[in-house]
Design brief:
heterodimer, A: about 200 residues, alpha+beta, Ubiquitin-like (UB roll), DNA polymerase, domain 1, 5 helices, 5 strands, B: about 325 residues, Uridine Diphospho-n-acetylenolpyruvylglucosamine Reductase, domain 2, Enolase-like, domain 1, five-stranded antiparallel β-sheet, 13 helices, Xanthine dehydrogenase family protein subunit M (chain B), CO_DH_flav_C_dom_sf (chain B)
Chain lengths: ~200, ~325
C-alpha cells in the first residue's frame, strides 16, 4: 500500500526566553529562520547558515547550539534561550558586561553568538569538561585552568570576521573570573548556612 | 530544500515502524550533517523520523567491564563522561577534536557514525559523484583531492570518512548495535563500513530500515594509556588531514599490546592491523614504530596531491607511540 504523502508543516509551540510562542511552520524552517523571520527576534544572526560560523548560537536546554542546523519543529519542548534572554531585565549578564567593558567586538555581527557561546563555555568549564587542548582529560586531573589557550579552543566555533579575537578572549576570561568568584561566594554562604543549621 | 514530513519517535519500535512505512523516510538525530546536506540538495528525504528523544541516551558499564554508549548520547556527554575519560581517554580526545562546542552538543553518537564524507564533489550537486549519483564518475581522482584517501580507495571513489570519534572507537574494537523490525543485530565497527569497490554509494552493512541503538566498547585495559592526535589545516574546528588513535602497553621494554587506528586516510576509520602485528612482542622504540608504520602504509596508493599523507601518518605513528611508551615507562 502506498503511503499517503506526509503533511509538510506543523503547529509548534516554542519556549523562548521563558515565553511560549505557538506558530505553524513549514518543516524546512530552521530555528534561526523561525526566530528572525517569524517571531521578529533578530538578535540571533545568520552568518553562513551551514553550521560553520557560530553567529546563530543560542542555548537549547542551557547548552549552546547553532540555530541554523536546528529544525524549528524539532525544537518543540526544549528551553530555548537567545541573546534577547541572556540578561536579567536591565541587569546585563557578566559576559555581556565584559564584552562592553573590553571592546569584545568591532562590527558586532558575530557578538550575540559569541556571547551566547561564552555563557555556555563558562558553564561547561565549571562543570569540569575538558577541551581539545586540555593536557590530561582524566577526571582525576581536575578541571583545567581557563587559560587563553583553553578559551580560544572552546570558542573556536565562533568566527569573527573583524578579528576581534584578542579582546573576545579577554572578555571571556574576565566574565569567567567574575563567575568563579560568584560561585565561590555562593559555596561559602552555603557552607555557613549548613554550619548554622548543624 | 525539498518539502518533507516530520514525526517524532518516542520508542524504538515506533521509530522502526515509521521508517518502515515510508521508503523515502530517514532518521534525524542531531541534524548537524543531515540538515546541512538537505539544504544543499545532496539529501532529499520525503520524511524525517526524529529519534533524538529516544531513551538511548545513557552510558552504562557492561557486565564484562566495558561500556555501552547509547546512540542518542551527544558527543559532548560522551566526551565528558568520567568512565570514558578515565578508561578510554583517546575517545574523549577524539570527540573533543571534532567540530565545535555547539555542534558537539547537538550531534549524536549514532549520527556521527553515519555522517557523510566532506568531499567537495559529493557536496556539490552540480558535479558528478559516484557516491551521490552512482555511475556519474569521480572528478576528485583527476581534480581536487589533497585531503582524499590513500588507503582502501578505488577507481570509483577516493573520499574519506570524516569522523574523529569513529577512529578511537575502531582502535578500541567497538561494536555497533542496531534494531530492525526482525530483531536486533550487531556489527563490529571494522565490518560496519563496506569496502568502497565499485559501490561507493553503499556505505554501511546496516540492514535496510535498521536503527543504530548504541555502541559497545569491550573492556580494554590498554586503552587507559591512549591518545588521539589530529592534524588539520588550522588550529581548531576543522576536519583532519590525518589523525591517529593509539593505545600502548609496554612491559619490560616489549610491546605487550598495541591499538592503532587512522583517520582521514580511507573511506572508513582505518584499523592498522598490519602495524599492530608488526609491533606486538617486539621492542617499543622509534625504529620499531617506524617499521610498523611502513608495514601498514605499504598498501597506500596516494594520488598526485595527497602523497604527503603517507609521510604524515608515518610521523604520527612514531610520535604518538613514542609519547605513550615514554609515559608508560614513568
Amino acid at each position: 500500500m502506498a503511503t499517503a504523502p506526509p503533511s509538510t508543516y506543523s503547529a509548534v509551540t516554542l519556549n523562548i526566553n521563558g515565553e511560549k510562542h505557538t506558530l505553524t511552520v513549514d518543516h524546512r524552517t530552521t530555528l534561526l529562520d523561525a526566530l528572525r523571520e517569524r517571531l521578529d527576534m533578530t538578535g540571533t544572526k545568520k552568518g553562513c547558515d551551514q553550521g560553520q560560523c557560530g553567529a546563530c548560537t543560542v542555548l537549547l536546554d542551557k547548552r549552546r547550539a547553532v540555530a541554523c542546523l536546528q529544525l524549528a519543529v524539532a525544537a518543540e519542548g526544549r528551553e530555548i534561550t537567545t541573546i534577547e534572554g541572556v540578561a536579567e531585565g536591565d541587569q546585563l549578564h557578566a559576559v555581556q558586561q565584559a564584552f562592553l567593558d573590553l571592546d569584545g567586538y568591532q562590527c558586532g555581527y558575530c557578538t550575540p553568538g559569541q556571547i551566547c557561546s561564552a555563557v555556555a563555555v563558562i558553564e561547561e568549564h565549571a562543570a569540569g569538561w575538558p577541551s581539545a587542548v586540555t593536557d590530561d582529560v582524566r577526571p582525576e586531573a581536575g578541571p583545567p585552568p581557563l587559560t587563553p589557550d583553553e578559551i580560544r579552543e572552546r570558542m573556536s566555533g565562533n568566527l569573527c570576521r573583524c578579528g576581534a579575537y584578542v579582546s573576545i578572549v579577554q572578555a571571556v576570561a574576565r566574565a569567567a573570573e567574575a563567575d568563579a568568584a560568584a560561585r565561590a561566594d555562593r559555596a561559602e554562604q552555603g557552607t555557613e548556612h549548613e554550619g548554622a543549621a548543624a | 530544500m525539498k518539502e518533507f514530513g516530520y514525526q517524532r519517535a518516542l520508542d524504538v519500535s515506533g521509530a522502526l515502524a515509521l521508517l518502515d512505512a515510508d521508503p523515502d523516510a530517514r532518521f534525524l538525530g542531531g541534524g548537524t550533517n543531515l540538515v546541512d546536506l538537505m539544504k544543499t540538495g545532496v539529501e532529499r528525504p520525503g520524511r524525517l523520523v526524529d529519534v533524538r528523544e529516544l531513551p538511548l541516551d545513557r552510558i552504562e558499564p557492561t557486565e564484562d567491564g566495558g561500556l555501552r554508549i547509547g546512540a542518542t548520547v551527544t558527543n559532548s556527554d560522551l566526551a565528558a563522561h568520567p568512565d570514558v575519560r578515565r578508561r578510554y581517554p583517546a575517545l574523549t580526545q577524539a570527540v573533543l577534536a571534532g567540530a565545535s562546542g555547539q555542534l558537539r552538543n547537538m550531534a549524536t553518537v549514532g549520527g556521527n557514525l553515519l555522517q557523510r564524507t566532506r568531499c567537495g564533489y559529493f557536496a556539490d550537486v552540480t558535479k558528478p559523484c559516484n557516491k551521490r549519483d552512482p555511475g556519474s564518475g569521480c572528478p576528485a581522482i583527476e581534480g581536487e583531492h589533497h585531503n582524499h584517501a590513500i588507503l582502501g580507495a578505488s577507481d570509483h571513489c577516493v573520499a574519506t570518512h570524516p569522523s574523529d570519534l569513529g577512529v578511537a572507537l575502531t582502535a578500541f574494537g567497538a561494536v555497533v548495535t542496531y534494531e530492525t523490525a526482525d530483531g536486533p543485530g550487531e556489527l563490529p565497527l571494522t565490518d560496519f563500513y563496506l569496502p568502497v569497490g565499485d559501490t561507493p554509494h553503499l556505505e554501511t552493512a546496516l540492514p535496510p530500515g535498521a536503527l543504530i541503538t548504541g555502541v559497545v566498547l569491550p573492556p580494554a585495559p590498554v586503552a587507559a594509556n591512549s591518545r588521539y592526535r589530529k592534524v588539520r589545516e588550522r588550529a581548531s574546528y576543522a576536519f583532519a588531514i590525518g589523525s591517529i588513535a593509539a593505545a600502548l602497553d609496554v612491559r619490560d621494554g616489549v610491546v605487550h599490546e598495541v591499538r592503532l587506528a587512522f583517520g582521514a586516510v580511507a573511506s572508513r576509520p582505518w584499523r592498522a592491523h598490519a602495524a599492530e602485528a608488526a609491533l606486538t612482542g617486539g621492542p617499543a622504540d622509534a625504529e620499531a614504530f617506524a617499521a610498523a608504520a611502513d608495514a601498514e602504509l605499504a598498501a597506500a596508493r596516494p594520488l598526485p596531491h595527497n602523497g604527503y599523507k603517507v609521510t604524515l601518518m608515518r610521523n604520527l605513528v612514531v610520535a604518538v607511540l613514542s609519547e605513550l611508551a615514554e609515559e608508560a615507562a614513568r
